[in-house]
Amino acid sequence: MAGVDFTAPVTKELEDAGVVAHNTRMGVILFVVYVLFYGGFMVLSAFRPEVMSKPFLRGVNLAVVYGFALIVAALVLALVYMKACRKSK
Amino acid sequence: MIHATSWIAVLVFLFFAGSVLAISFYLGSKAKSASGYFAAGGGIHWAVNGVAFAGDYLSAASFLGICGMIAFYGYDGFLYSIGYLAGWIVALFIIAEPLKRLGRFTFADALDNKFNSRGIKLAAAISTLVVSCFYLIPQMVGAGALVRPLLGFPHYVGVIVVGLIVTMIVTTAGMVSTTWVQFIKGTMLVLLCAFITVLLLMRGVTTKPTDAGGNEVRILKRGVPAVEVTGAAGATVLPEEGAWKDKPYLRVRSSAGVVAVWHKDGDLLSEAQTLTVQKDGRRLVNGLPQGKKEGEADLAPVGYASKLPGGVEKTGPLNPFGFLRTMQKSEVILWGSDKIAEADGSATTVYYQKPTAGADFMAPGSSPTFKKVRSKKLFDKLDFLSLMLALFCGTASLPHILIRYYTVKDQISARKSTVVGIAAIGFFYVLTLFLGLGAMTSGNLDVTDSNMSAPLLARSLNEFLFAVLSAVAFTTVLGTVSGLIMAASGAVAHDLMTSFMKLKLDEFQKVRAAKIAAMCVGLLAICLGILFAKMNVNFLVGWAFNIAASANLPALVMLLFWKRTTKQGITAAIVVGMLSSLAWILLSAQAYKDVYGLDPALAIVPFSQPAIVTIPLGFLVLVLVSLMTPRPEEQGKAVPAHA
Predict the structure, then answer these.
(1) How many domains does chain B have?
(2) Residues 485-524 (B) with a CB less than 8 A from some CB of A
């Protein structure tokens, strides 16, 4: 079983440099998308708090809706990432 | 508040703890290898690992701290939920796969994969230990907070019980039993909270809440004309002198000699509650000895709406949007507190009513932690921005989360289990807002202890539910603490002893070293849990995130994305990030107030959350040191492009 000898080289998965590059790029793109969305929340909360307390969707204020949206967006982007990632041959 | 001991809760907890220990011993008898101990042999199914992520991550702080903060202050607690979840995005998109590709047991492995540097191993191991200890404190404090109302035992008993059980779990089967404990706990916690949320929405909101026995909760008096209080037969108004001077309180001594405190709202008075701790440790509530017997008094349960939309007394069942809308348009009695040091050495805490409009508490900035976000000064907003940054960057830097990537077989499984983790954790965090607001209006809160809000909400619905939820919460502590102790023992046995000190240990000795390390960390956790008993657990977790993000994130990210990164750069970034954030925290206003008991105004650093300064500092140090040292390829090994 791996790990019997701590000093042995790490057994690497078979990986294709092209696949790793593609997956890394997808990760970075989706990360930037989320950072912008999260950054928007931080900036609005800190600098326009009055906007956050206005009703936004079905009478619920923007602070709550934006908060839920950040949670849902994390899951949606995670699923997009799973679909977009390639498998090593 | 004195809580009645719930024997059902004790039985349910004993059942959970017993099952968990039985599973541990069973798995322990099967797993003997180092790989089995540290990484469950890499053989955990991704779906199980995903739920175990939730079990690992949804700590006592997430559960008790966030619900408590929402119940006491409103939306601000939910900011933690948002930040904690958003952090998973960093973990999934940036960290998960490379970490799985590069490492084997600990995150020091991954950092050191390119360099084989003892400096990195030492720095990463120390940072793992520091972060794990900081994260352990709130978990242990949470355990103590739970056991007091459950068993009627003092705080330290809870801390010791959890410490012992967890050490047993970790030392029997390491990561295998830890994973299954976290899986069971994650599943139970999410399902139970979903069930409570459904019951809560079916109950709706009322201005006259009842307890589990159907008895109406006492509504504390408000809007009482001063003459009614001062003019009562035998009443004497005490002078506003000493520490009571210039305070908005009126103290009235009754003919029986008992002093009641009222809060002045203009010309009218509202009933306040007081808890006095005398010099000899005796506790008085509203001037009487604390207790449930004749001639004794206890703090009244609090937390109810004072006005509902349309002036109704009861809303009836609500859908999720309807519930949030109702809360926004209601007025709720929140509670403020004020500590007064008396001349005779006793300390009185006055709890006073603060009717608060939903529009106020349903937006950021209603809690003491985040109130500065509503300030006009840019500098005041930095604390908020810094914490949100720390939460975002901290998750992917927490060693006990990172080691979970080594329990699955490959990168695809790492990815899939993260997605399952995000789904379970995200769903739970959506529920926290409902649970917190539900507790806020449950009529059953303990005004002295926000951490008890979620279990007390369950008690307001059903006594058995309270028992199960308390037991699950206790198991929650077990799951997270075992993950933390696992990470810390791995850092000691694998990174420090084997990799750094180059001790020649065979497999049996390595596992034994890790188990001894786990016992030491368990003992340390017990001591820390007792020392920090008084702090809000969620705030402490915020600190752990700050340190983790400052110490580990710059090194992890730059290693992956900057070819010029050198081993000296990584070591320096970890050391500087860790020390600067730790020093900042220890010199902050919050530490002055809660840890040393000093005047927060004396604090040296301008705000309490360091991340906004110390994360960029970590990156800067890494870049500067890397540029000042020879390129990695000149030092022997090259860093490939997509490392």
Answers:
(1) 2
(2) 494, 498-499, 507, 510
The two three-digit tokens of residue A79, written as one number: 């699923």
Query: DSSP state, B212?
Result: T
- The answer to whether the CB atoms of A74 and B88 lie below 8 A apart is yes
Residues 293 to 352 of B: which have CB under 8 A from any A CB?
321, 324-325, 328
Chain A, 29 to 58: residues with Cβ < 8 Å from chain B are: 30-31, 34, 38, 41-42, 45-47, 49, 52-53, 55, 58
Which of B59-68, B278-287, B350-359, B383-392 ranks highest by mean pLDDT? B350-359
| Mean of pLDDT over chain B | 86
Q: Which of B484, B507, B542 is the last residue of a domain?
A: B542
Q: Residue B631 domain-assigned?
A: no
Sign of CA dihedral B84, B325, B190, B540: positive
The verdict on residue B643 lying in a domain is: no
ipTM: 0.87
Helix (H, G, I), strand (E, B), or coil: what is residue B281?
A: coil
Q: B179 with B285, same domain? A: no
Domain region containing A24 = 17-84
Beta carbons of B82 and A17 less than 8 Å apart = no
Q: Give me B39's structure tokens.
A: 């990484």
- Report the chain B residue with the minimal C-alpha distance to residue A8: B104
CATH number at residue B467: 1.20.1730.10
From chain B, the residues in CB contact with A72 under 8 A are 426
The chain B residue lying nearest A53, using CA atoms, is B363
Q: Do B402 and B371 share a structural domain?
A: no
3-state secondary structure of B310: helix
DSSP B466-503: HHHHHHHHHHHHHHHHHHHHHHHHHIIIIIIIIIIS--
- Nearest by CB to B94, from A7, A27, A60: name it: A27
CB contact under 8 A, B426 and A61: no
d(CA B256, CA B260) in angstroms, rounded, equals 11
Decide if B536 is inside a domain.
yes
In Å, how far is A75's CA from the nearest CA of chain B? Answer: 6
Q: Which residue has the higher pLDDT, B352 or B31?
A: B352
DSSP-derived secondary structure letter, B199: H
pLDDT of residue A10: 46
CB B410 within 8 A of CB B100: yes
Residue B243 has pLDDT above 90, yes or no: no
Tell me what pLDDT residue B468 has: 87
- Asked if B85 and B188 sit in the same domain, the reply is yes
Evaluate whether B53 touches B418 at the Cβ level (below 8 Å).
Answer: yes
pLDDT of B241 reads 85
Interchain CB distance below 8 Å, A81 and B81? no
> Is A10 within 8 Å of B102 when comparing Cβ atoms?
yes
Q: How many residues are listed for chain B in this entry? A: 643
**What pLDDT shows up at residue B132?**
86
Mean pLDDT of B466-477: 82
**pTM > 0.90:** no
Do B535 and B386 fall into the same domain? yes
Number of domains comprising chain A? 1
Q: Are residues B12 and B134 in the same domain?
A: yes
Domain assignment present for A28 = yes
Amino acid at B486: M
- Flag if B34 and A6 touch (Cβ within 8 Å): yes
Reading the block at residue B48, the tokens are 């199980």
